[in-house]
Structure of RNA methyltransferase, TrmH family, group 1:
Amino acid sequence: MYVRVVLVGIEGSVNLGFIARTCVNFGVDELYLVKPAADLEEALRYAAKASDYLKKAIIVDDLVDAIKDVDLVVATTAKGYSVGDVVRQAVPLRDFVEMVKGRVNRLAILFGRESTGLTRKELRYADVLVTIPANPEYPVLNLSQAVAVFLWEIWNIRGVRAENIPPSAGRDEIEFILKLIHDISKKVLVKDEKVSRIMEIWKKIIYRSRISKYEARLLTYWLRKVLGKLE
């Protein structure tokens, strides 16, 4: 999925810098700024390693120019529902993500001003209105936080593997660990019935823990040492 973030009238330089970083964090392909009020030079100070990305942001005067050549336009709002208001009938973010998964090639996500959000006229440019469910007593998120939450959800359906997550142990590795535990249990427990019950517990624990390959390797090493001591 090709993702474009569109910031309409963004006012805060700090927010703009943070949003640029977030766009890089989650692989956003394009950043459009519609009549930005923020100081772009100041925003670069908060963009950190996303400063080059922010410099490439496309600045336009009309929202129409920012939503060309996409398959779907989604607008975000904290006020997602109002009785009798045909414009403000939003869907929760999670529902939206499931809706577009595998069905949309090019997506534009609209975010409004920190002070007033998107106008009703701007909301009408969207095909779908989405809201992030939050505390009903104060559901309004900071703009940069809303962008981060939204982009993280989109990231999860784009099929990009994060390199800061260790590779999980495979089934063969886990089954070998369970075999070692079984062999140890046979040596320390007298009754086969108890071995069987213990193995049921160990199987659930090991699979539920979703250990990494590195953890599996260390655990296998330790279990082999224990088994060796018992023989």
The chain has a mean pLDDT of 92. The two ends are 56 Å apart (CA to CA). The first strand starts at residue 2 and ends at 8. The chain has ten helices and seven strands.
